[in-house]
Write a structure and sequence with these properties.
- By secondary structure, the protein is α+β, with helices and mostly antiparallel strands.
- The chain is built from 17 helices and 40 strands.
- The strands form 9 sheets. It has a 9-stranded antiparallel β-sheet with strand order 14-13-10-11-12-15-23-21-20. An 8-stranded antiparallel β-barrel has the order 25-26-27-28-29-30-31-32, surrounded by 4 helices.
- A hairpin with a 4-residue loop joins β26 and β27 (520-524).
- It starts with a strand and ends with a strand.
- 49% of the residues are buried.
């Protein structure tokens, strides 16, 4: 077995590989850019080598720099993780020439299946059903528009190299095809150093289901069942689960056998994923093969008990797979929520900054449930603008899907992240959405269910009452604490009353509290009561309560006359006042936000790639105004209404903060 492995990656996946290597007794080498000098993967590894400036095209995807780090440390093998150089044939060839083992497939397999155009042709030759499209290279935007028209809109414009949603656009007309081609080309060049683009028919209402395969160098190939990845935004997966709630055993077997046949056809070894789109009748079509470890591999590990990273290392070392297909049963259900540094209240735009608070739920494994959190950050660390915005992958396992979903709800409520915008509230909203709970979703789920973006969750009447009862109980604990403050006047004694008014979500709820040593009974004006118990004390940011025998977890922050409470995707200002205070509060004027309708504000920290209009120009609704790049993604900012550009305050190449003014309108 190898004595030392270099991980040619960063962040969460580098940390994940290091954990398996350490478990196997293998020493690890990390590589890092200037931006990652204090990163978690650097701290975890036995050795670390600096490889250059923050941009990935000057550090993590520069083959010569990785090779020099290998020579410097004497690493015998390299695990590439996902992204960066993981599907780069030239990198695999460079390692082979150096006599260093690539923990992944052989370079011909990477060339054959890592390139989406070639893989489609090979799949067609192997009589695998594929989506209609144009498999040749496309030279410019005009040709992209012509081909898109021939295929028929909508079309998917995709980078031939790479994945993770980078270099992908859906176009519904000529203008979107033209804009999408250029943005996809730019993103592909920046992320993978390969700007080749192809176009295929976009199949509406599909499910995205993928098969995990694992093959050794002795001719053995197995599939570790499927993952459902239909909850996507901007072609980037947000929620994944294993198995799929949609597949039956016959379809699962057919997809798995086809995936293995495709892997054998190209001499594939190591872990890989064959992606399919599946229609409502369970017809499936080959999409692409990812010749690497997938981001969502933990859910497969949780239902099979197989450590995929360990098996990749063992296969690379020449070992046989220790199991056959019949040994790989599905045990329970697993769900993964990807935590992104993206602000859901600002249309999921990237958010960067320091993690002033980062407290994931406790990782634990019992017979009834598992909580796992794969991460590459820590409290006090910084989220950089240079890399993918994923912070962590929160996973839960349970014997059934409904139990796994409930476990995820509690885990998301328990996860504390402050200092940046993040998508935890959105993930919570998905867990409670009827379509997701039923398992009846497609890749259009987010677009259909959140057409106007995410504006928070409105709690049901029952949920709101539970929160109101918790807030009243919490407030009473805080009030009792305040009565015990030292240094009070000797002849003054403060009493805590029983009658309160809870204001939340635009409602006023009158309650009466009867407290005892074990907890409090909170009674509403209609006679309904909730029994609340908790060990919460003032100053704690996480309140774990029991309401009528059921657990409730609230994130709690003190605000004047109440608490900011976050739970199940809702973000509420909850005021608890005496009846007289509530009466006076109704008389307070409401402060309105400033009018910014005549400004185009930068929605995220990023770099201006292009200004598409000029001063004095009349623009139409939906017209492209500017392009901003952040976290490896290009974002086109469009006019919300017809107007005239009065002044342009930023130029291409400028680095802007959130809400910096890009241009003004008359």
């Amino acid at each position: 077995m190898f004595k030392k492995i270099l991980i040619a990656n960063r962040g969460e996946i580098a940390c994940r590989v290091i954990k398996s290597a350490q478990k196997m007794g293998i020493k690890t080498v990390a590589v890092y850019s200037d931006a990652d000098r204090n990163a978690l993967h650097v701290k975890m590894a036995d050795e670390a080598v600096h490889i250059g400036p923050p941009p990935a095209n000057q550090s993590y995807i520069v083959i010569d720099k990785i090779m020099e780090a290998i020579r410097q440390t004497g690493a015998e093998a390299v695990h590439p993780g996902y992204g960066f150089l993981s599907e780069n044939m030239k990198f695999a060839e460079a390692l082979e020439k150096e006599g260093v083992v690539f923990v992944g497939p052989p370079s011909p397999a990477i060339e054959a299946m890592g390139d989406k155009i070639t893989s489609k042709k090979l799949a067609q030759e192997a009589n695998v059903s594929t989506v209609p499209g144009y498999m040749g290279l496309i030279s410019d935007a005009d040709e992209a528009v012509k081909i898109s028209g021939q295929i028929g809109y909508p079309v998917m414009i995709k980078a031939s190299a790479g994945g993770g949603g980078k270099g992908m656009r859906i176009a519904w007309n000529d203008e979107e095809a033209r804009d999408g081609f250029q943005s996809s080309k730019n993103e592909a060049a920046n992320s993978f150093g390969d700007d080749r683009i192809f176009i295929e028919k976009f199949v509406t209402q599909p499910r995205h289901i993928e098969i995990q395969v694992l093959a050794d160098k002795h001719g053995n190939c197995v599939y570790l069942h499927e993952r459902e990845c239909s909850i996507q935004r901007r072609n980037q997966k947000v929620i994944e689960e294993a198995p799929s709630p949609f597949l039956d055993e016959a379809t699962r077997k057919a997809m798995g056998e086809q995936a293995c046949a495709l892997a054998r056809a190209v001499g594939y070894t190591s872990a890989g994923t064959v992606e399919f789109i599946v229609d409502g009748d369970r017809n499936f079509y080959f999409l692409e093969m990812n010749t690497r470890l997938q981001v969502e591999h933990p859910v497969t590990e949780l239902i099979t008990g197989v450590d995929l990273v360990e098996q990749m290392i063992r296969v690379a070392d020449g070992e046989k797979l220790p199991f056959a297909q019949d040994d790989l049963k599905i045990n329970g259900w697993a769900i993964e929520s990807r935590l992104y540094a993206e602000d859901p209240y600002r249309n999921f735009l990237p958010s960067i900054g320091r993690l002033t608070r980062y407290r994931p739920p406790v990782e634990a494994a019992t017979a009834t449930g598992v909580v796992r959190n794969d991460t590459g950050v820590y409290e006090g660390g910084e989220i950089s603008m240079y890399y993918d915005p994923m912070i962590a992958k929160l996973c839960t396992w349970a014997p059934s899907r409904s139990e796994a979903i409930e476990g995820m709800r509690v885990a998301l409520d328990t996860f504390e992240v402050e200092g940046i915008g993040h998508n935890l509230p959105f993930c919570s909203a998905v867990m409670d959405h009827p379509k997701f709970v039923s398992g009846d979703m497609t890749t259009a789920f987010i677009a259909e269910e959140f057409p106007d973006g995410f504006n928070g969750v409105t709690l049901s009447e029952g949920q709101l009452r539970r929160v109101a009862a918790c807030a009243a109980a919490i407030n009473r604990v805080a009030e009792i604490r305040r009565t015990r403050i030292t240094g009070r006047l000797g002849n003054h004694e403060r009493h805590v009353g029983d009658d309160w008014v809870v204001t939340a979500q635009g409602e006023e709820i009158a309650v009466t509290i009867a407290a005892d040593r074990e907890g409090a009974t909170v009674r509403f004006s209609d006679g309904v009561a909730h029994r609340v118990t908790s060990d919460w004390t003032p100053g704690q940011s996480l309140a774990r309560l029991d309401v009528d025998g059921e657990p409730v977890v609230l994130k709690v922050d003190k605000i004047p006359a109440g608490q900011r409470i976050r739970t199940r995707g809702a973000d509420l200002k909850v005021y608890v006042r005496t009846p007289r205070q509530a009466e006076l509060a109704r008389l307070m004027p409401e402060k309105l936000p400033p009018d910014t309708s005549k400004f185009l504000l930068c929605p995220m920290p990023g770099l201006i790639v292009k200004i598409s209009v000029e001063e004095g120009q009349e623009v139409q609704e939906g017209q492209a105004l500017a392009t901003v790049e952040a976290m490896k993604m290009e974002n086109i900012l469009r006019a919300e209404r017809k107007g005239v550009v009065k002044k342009i305050n930023a130029a291409a190449g400028a680095s802007l903060k959130v809400d910096d003014v890009i241009m003004e309108f008359e």
